[in-house]
Amino acid sequence: MHCEACAQAIKKRIEKMKGVQSADPDLKASEVTVKGVFEEVKLAEYVHKRTGRHAAIIKSEPVAPAEKAGEGDAK
């Protein structure tokens, strides 16, 4: 990313991907923090396909599974 306009264009394209909740570009680090529920590999491929720019997953945090309602106290 060279400028703020580049960062905003990439952010706009990433936010259109299914499962993405938010995208926060960091121009100085040339990184974008993406939050949501999606496959990392598909995100990298999507960014490369839509923007023509290199994309790599730097850090991934797994989502904690939600507890099923009714478990535990039910007899």
UniProtKB/TrEMBL annotation:
Domain of life: Eukaryota
Location of the HMA domain: 1-56
GO molecular function annotations of the record: metal ion binding
SUPFAM superfamilies named in the record: HMA, heavy metal-associated domain (SSF55008)
Keyword annotations of the record: Lipoprotein, Metal-binding, Prenylation
Gene3D superfamilies: 3.30.70.100
Name of the protein described by the UniProt record: HMA domain-containing protein
UniProt organism field: Aegilops tauschii subsp. strangulata
CDD domains reported for this sequence: HMA
Family the entry assigns: Belongs to the HIPP family.
UniProt-listed InterPro entries: HIPP4/7/8/17/18/19 (IPR044577), HMA_dom (IPR006121), HMA_dom_sf (IPR036163)
Matching Pfam families: HMA
